[in-house]
From TrEMBL:
SUPFAM superfamilies: S-adenosyl-L-methionine-dependent methyltransferases. HAMAP family: Thiopur_methtran. Gene3D superfamilies: Vaccinia Virus protein VP39. This is Thiopurine S-methyltransferase. The lineage of its organism: Bacteria, Pseudomonadati, Pseudomonadota, Gammaproteobacteria, Oceanospirillales.
Length: 212
């Protein structure tokens, strides 16, 4: 699967990438009341401009992406000096207050996320096959402290290619995946566009250990 994504990035097959900040991030982030300074984890980040938007609002950002091509493009299209260093399994790129860790999200360890207080996820689930989606929801929960808040934008696709990605992820599945460890609230539903993609916008709060 990693190779498939790396190939996609090399060939420029990245129709999921938006040339602007996601309007639903701009619309809903402030309602989550996450103070500037809180560090935001962005799993499966691609070269999303949403990371810059979050950084501009005072949030240090930690993105995870396994295609180095995506990260190269992100920093080339941004401003400012780039520094690089090694952190365990990951090759880390830093530009301003955005750091992107090049490697597999599932290798990220709780020791790497001790400074994280919030998260933002757009379109991570559609990149993953069903068993990996379960691992994703569980792993994300393990990386976050109780009370961590996040915004998640999931994509449902009525017209699917014969084999994914993108995989279709229904809102019912999103609820099943996340309710064991998160309080989940559906904030918005955007109807299908002409490619058959509709989006659901969710707010999540990581539950504490004793909350059922
Ligand atoms: C559908 S794209 C979404 C990218 C970004 N969130 C956005 O909104 O533009 C999914 C991204 O996740 C990356 N990816 C997939 N599986 C991954 C994994 N296990 N660890 C790190 N990155 C992964 C892919 O290379 C791809 O860039």
């Amino acid at each position: 699967m990693a190779n498939e994504w790396i190939e996609r990035w090399r060939e420029g097959r990245i129709a999921f990438h938006l040339p602007e900040t996601h309007p639903q991030l701009e619309r809903h982030w402030s309602a989550l009341d996450i103070p500037p300074g809180d560090k935001v984890l962005v799993p499966l980040c691609g070269k999303s401009l949403d990371m810059r938007w979050l950084a501009d609002r005072g949030h240090p950002v930690l993105g995870i992406e396994f295609a180095s091509e995506a990260i190269e493009q992100f920093v080339a299209e941004g401003d400012g000096e780039v520094s690089r260093y090694r952190q365990g399994y990951f090759d880390v790129w830093r530009q301003g207050s955005v750091e992107i860790w090049c490697g597999d999200f599932f290798h990220l360890h709780i020791d790497n996320t001790r400074e994280i207080q919030a998260f933002y996820d757009r379109a991570a689930l559609i990149a993953l096959q069903h068993p990996a989606r379960q691992r994703y929801a569980f792993h994300l929960a393990q990386l976050l402290p109780p009370g961590a808040k996040g915004l998640m934008i999931t994509i449902t696709r009525s017209i699917l290619p014969e084999k994914g990605p993108p995989y279709n992820v229904e809102p019912e599945e999103v609820r099943q995946l996340f309710t064991p460890n998160f309080e989940l609230e559906l904030l918005d539903v955007l109807p299908a566009d002409d490619r058959g993609f509709s989006e659901h916008v969710w707010s999540l709060v990581r539950r504490g250990p004793s909350e059922g």
